[in-house]
Write a structure and sequence with these properties.
Structural class: mainly beta
Oligomer: single chain
Distance between the termini: 35 Å
Helix content: under 10%
Largest sheet: 5 strands, antiparallel
Mean pLDDT: 82
Strand content: 35-45%
């Protein structure tokens, strides 16, 4: 299990999360919130709604058992959670719903 508090001499172990939210979220922001550390990563989804996140580059790093909340918000929105395992990479899909004036209240 990688320790918290990595440094230049003891970096966090690589951990990549492949996110697939589908083509409807292409160009929209995807947020990855580590519920254990409170750290939030934000990036823009690619042309097919994909995003590759490297957790070892975060300030707090990661530990097996951390829970990520992954959200997208825009014309299509959705969220899912992922519990980190001890492997170097994991994949997750996010189901999205088209935004309407009635289902986006409080989400932005």
């Amino acid at each position: 299990m990688p320790p918290r508090g990595g440094s230049a001499t003891t970096p966090y172990l690589p951990k990549q999360i492949e996110i697939d939210a589908g083509p409807n979220v292409a160009g929209q922001e995807i947020r990855v919130y580590n519920t254990n550390t409170g750290e939030v990563l934000r990036d823009i989804a690619g042309g097919s709604g994909e995003l590759l996140v490297e957790l070892s580059s975060t300030t707090s790093g990661w530990t097996e058992g951390d829970v990520l909340l992954i959200k997208t918000n825009g014309d299509y929105f959705g969220s899912t959670t992922l519990t980190l395992d001890g492997t170097g990479g994991q994949s997750v899909s996010v189901s999205v719903t088209q935004a309407t004036t009635t289902n986006t209240v409080g989400l932005r």
